[in-house]
Design a protein that fits this description.
Order of helices and strands: HHHH
Largest sheet: none
CATH architecture: Up-down Bundle
CATH topology: 3 helical TM bundles of succinate and fumarate reductases
Structural class: mainly alpha
Number of strands: 0
Distance between the termini: 46 Å
Number of helices: 4
Radius of gyration: 17 Å
CATH superfamily: Fumarate reductase/succinate dehydrogenase, transmembrane subunit
Number of domains: 1
Strand content: under 5%
Length: about 120
């Protein structure tokens, strides 16, 4: 049986399940933020800062960030393997995507956790 090295879970069914779970986490995060905005009008910088000083919100944000990275990777990997036939060009695109996702995640974690 041929296994793909670049797949997240090395199984199409598990990749599909990861996409669904991460979509639920992201939807929950967006619903929470929309509800927070609607319940706290007018929004102020102090209120926004206080929200992200809360440990629960930092963990929830980190979970949403990881979900976004996994969700993006599974989706992009699927698109690349389906539509890019040249292995070298696909590898180049995979490297660019992985480096981009890693740098976005590191940058976002540094912002959320206040690392300098």
């Amino acid at each position: 049986m041929l296994r793909s090295v670049t797949s997240l879970t090395r199984s199409g069914l598990r990749d599909w399940l990861v996409q669904r779970i991460t979509a639920i986490v992201l939807a929950g995060y967006v619903i929470f933020l929309v509800g927070f905005f609607m319940l706290n009008q007018p929004m102020s910088f102090g209120l926004w800062t206080a929200l992200f000083q809360n440990g629960f919100m930092r963990i929830f944000t980190f979970l949403a960030l990881l979900s976004m990275v996994y969700h993006t990777w599974v989706g992009m990997w699927t698109v690349l393997t389906d539509y890019i036939n040249c292995p070298r060009f696909r590898l180049l695109l995979v490297i660019v995507i992985v480096l981009s996702l890693f740098s976005y995640l590191a940058w976002a974690v540094a912002i959320v956790w206040g690392l300098r």
